């Protein structure tokens, strides 16, 4: 969170003063070219390309119909209007109507196919990016702001669709229109058409100038959109803290500041977009006037009919917006490139922890098999670990083993690495040195999925979702029947409490399960762990935040939960430690003897640390 607000916050509508442009944010130019961004995301269109092809083909049909209609208009002008021959009107008029209907149908089919292809592409790309993010270790999330990630998954992914989906279709359509209308203009009078083409480079230069500026503004807009989302997400997720500490105004100011940056970038984009149209319009008008002037002279000289001139002018009137559109597409694509840069960055991050492929596993241990249901023997063999962004090791020379069904208590001062031990066992990270074994197999030789099937972790804060009680208990075993769910709830001593809820097992638990108390959340989490029924259990401070009566109440369900499972109980709370448990006392990782295994802990005495 930021420091205290530096200037008073206006909680009403932002004043004119506040809406004045703030200090210009540093330009954030995308680091990838449009071509590279396109190459990166084009493969994701596999399976939907046919929609884009249909979109382009039907748009071309519509453009051909328009070209033919204009030809008919010229014909009607010369053959019907100039000669006042009404009988010659009906056939071209009917043909024109037919062309208009065909063009209408073709436009509809083309636009619809493009939209379907674009939406499917969006769905697929978002799924892929989300699936990729889920392969990354918790380390990635600890270093990122969730709101920004959400913006990348929604707005930025949408922008990419503009690049490789609808934007591409529009590009082809526009190029086809330029070719047809220019071809028709050349067909009528090639020399006059050449005059009109003299102005085309002016369009292209203007577009290039605008696109470069637009791209810069778009990159800033994408960035501030992500930051704004982060502020909203953080602030809403921590509302109780915000309100308890009277930080509403400061939070509103944070959002306002980020919103102002976003506003600036958007206003710049809108200004460029709005300016491009009139500038192009002026160029277009100059061209039309040149054509009319030269055309009038040609008519006077008898080298061109009025119908010919009107049709020619109409072709050019269609041609220039198409050329102008090319510039507009360049602006949209620039925006898309800014978004694609942010999505590509995420896709290029590789998880520090990966599943070994089969040959590598074979090199390591010819007998290694992915675990199905393990017996639950856990061994740490001389394990060292340093967090990626830290220079000092957190764990050094950690060795211990737990037999199937045994309880190992892990204690030691705060920050010494107890929770880290659990993260290593679940392969959120891999040790820097040493090995962790499950049933004698190095856990790096198992798939992460198989490993995690065998381990259930209960973290310091019981994490619940916003679904119902039933959904939350069945989270680790979605196929569980109601009987199993109820049995788990009874064992966790939470069934009676659930019976008092308005919709019993169908009661929604609210955002992060906040509609129930800490102790109730804890027991629901126990029921979830019981239902999952894995052979290894890691309990990270299961009593955190509970008062003595509540803690006493969950002791019995906790014992039931641990019974028959290899349990690593991380705790400072001596009430939890049974007489017979082996205790590991972690000390600061300064030397090889910093970890001590105490055989038995008695009389609630604190184990000594070496
Ligand atoms: N993702 C991370 N990146 C870098 N350092 C980390 C990370 N997570 C934890 N640490 C550091 O590693 C050390 C061990 O943290 P850990 O959470 O394992 O301690 P702990 O013994 O469980 O503490 P507590 O009893 O307070 O829960 C701490 O110094 C902590 O700051």
Automatic annotation (TrEMBL):
Residues 53-335 form the ABC transmembrane type-1 domain. Its main location: membrane. SMART domains: AAA. PROSITE patterns: ABC_TM1F, ABC_TRANSPORTER_1, ABC_TRANSPORTER_2. Coiled coil: none annotated. One of its GO terms (cellular component) is plasma membrane. Residues 1-27 are annotated as: Disordered. The keyword Transmembrane helix applies. Keywords: ATP-binding, Cell membrane, Membrane, Nucleotide-binding, Transmembrane, Transmembrane helix, Transport. The chain crosses the membrane at residues 51-76, 88-116, 168-188, 194-212, 274-297, 303-320. Residues 378-610 form the ABC transporter domain. It is found in: Cell membrane. GO terms for molecular function: ABC-type oligopeptide transporter activity; ATP binding; ATP hydrolysis activity. CDD domains: ABC_6TM_exporter_like (cd18564). It is a multi-pass membrane protein. Belongs to the ABC transporter superfamily. Lipid exporter (TC 3.A.1.106) family. PANTHER family: ATP-BINDING CASSETTE SUB-FAMILY B MEMBER 10, MITOCHONDRIAL, ATP-DEPENDENT PERMEASE MDL1, MITOCHONDRIAL. This is ATP-binding cassette, subfamily B.
């Amino acid at each position: 969170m930021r420091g205290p607000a530096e200037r008073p916050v206006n909680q009403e509508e932002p004043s004119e003063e506040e809406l004045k442009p703030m200090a210009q944010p540093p330009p954030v130019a995308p680091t990838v070219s449009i071509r590279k961004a396109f190459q990166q995301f084009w493969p994701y269109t596999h399976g939907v390309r046919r929609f884009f092809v249909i979109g382009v083909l039907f748009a071309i049909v519509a453009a051909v119909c328009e070209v033919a209609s204009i030809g008919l208009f010229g014909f009607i002008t010369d053959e019907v209007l100039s000669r006042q021959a009404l009988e010659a009107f009906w056939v071209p008029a009917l043909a024109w109507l037919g062309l208009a209907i065909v063009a209408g149908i073709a436009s509809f089919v083309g636009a619809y196919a493009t939209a379907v292809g674009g939406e499917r592409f969006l769905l697929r790309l978002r799924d892929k990016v989300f699936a990729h993010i889920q392969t990354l270790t918790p380390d990635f999330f600890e270093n990122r702001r969730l709101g920004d990630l959400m913006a990348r998954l929604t707005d930025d992914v949408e922008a990419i669709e503009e690049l490789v989906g609808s934007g591409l279709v529009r590009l082809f359509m526009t190029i086809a229109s330029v070719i047809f209308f220019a071809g028709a203009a050349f067909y009528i009078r090639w020399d006059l058409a050449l005059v009109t083409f003299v102005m085309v480079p002016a369009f292209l230069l203007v577009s290039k100038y605008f696109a470069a500026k637009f791209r810069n503004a778009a990159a800033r807009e994408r960035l501030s959109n992500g930051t704004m989302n982060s502020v909203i997400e953080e602030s809403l997720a921590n509302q109780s803290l915000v309100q308890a500490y009277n930080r509403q105004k400061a939070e509103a100011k944070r959002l306002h500041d980020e919103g102002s940056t976003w506003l600036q970038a958007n206003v710049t984009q809108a200004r460029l977009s709005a300016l491009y149209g009139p500038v192009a319009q002026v160029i277009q008008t100059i061209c039309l006037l040149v054509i009319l002037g030269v055309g009038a002279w040609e008519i006077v000289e008898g080298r061109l009919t009025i119908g010919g001139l009107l049709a020619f002018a109409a072709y050019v009137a269609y041609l220039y917006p198409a050329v102008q559109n090319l510039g507009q597409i360049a602006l949209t694509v620039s925006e898309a490139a800014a978004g694609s840069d942010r999505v590509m960055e995420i896709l290029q991050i590789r998880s520090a922890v990966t599943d070994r492929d089969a040959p590598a596993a074979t090199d390591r241990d010819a007998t290694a098999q992915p675990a199905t249901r393990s017996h639950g023997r856990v061994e740490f063999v001389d394990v060292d670990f340093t967090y990626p962004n830290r220079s000092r090791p957190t764990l050094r020379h950690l060795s211990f083993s737990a037999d199937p069904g045994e309880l190992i208590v892990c204690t030691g001062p705060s920050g010494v690495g107890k929770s880290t031990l659990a993260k290593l066992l679940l392969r959120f990270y891999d040790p820097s040195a040493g090995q962790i074994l499950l049933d004698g197999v190095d856990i790096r030789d198992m798939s992460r999925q198989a490993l995690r099937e065998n381990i259930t972790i209960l973290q310091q804060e019981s994490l619940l979702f916003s679904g119902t009680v039933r959904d939350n208990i069945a989270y680790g075993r979605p196929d569980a029947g109601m009987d199993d769910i109820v049995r788990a709830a009874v064992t966790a001593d939470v069934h009676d409490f659930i019976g008092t809820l308005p919709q019993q097992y169908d009661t929604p638990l609210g955002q992060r399960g906040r509609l129930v108390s800490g102790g109730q959340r804890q027991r629901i989490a126990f029921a979830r762990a019981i239902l999952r029924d894995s052979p290894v259990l890691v309990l990270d401070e299961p009593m955190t935040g509970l008062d003595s009566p509540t803690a006493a109440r969950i002791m019995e369900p906790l014992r039931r939960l641990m019974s028959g499972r290899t349990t690593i109980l991380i705790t400072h709370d001596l009430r939890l430690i049974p007489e017979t448990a082996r205790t590991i006392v972690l000390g600061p990782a300064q030397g090889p003897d910093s970890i001590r295994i105490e055989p038995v802990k008695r009389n609630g005495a604190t184990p000594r640390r070496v």
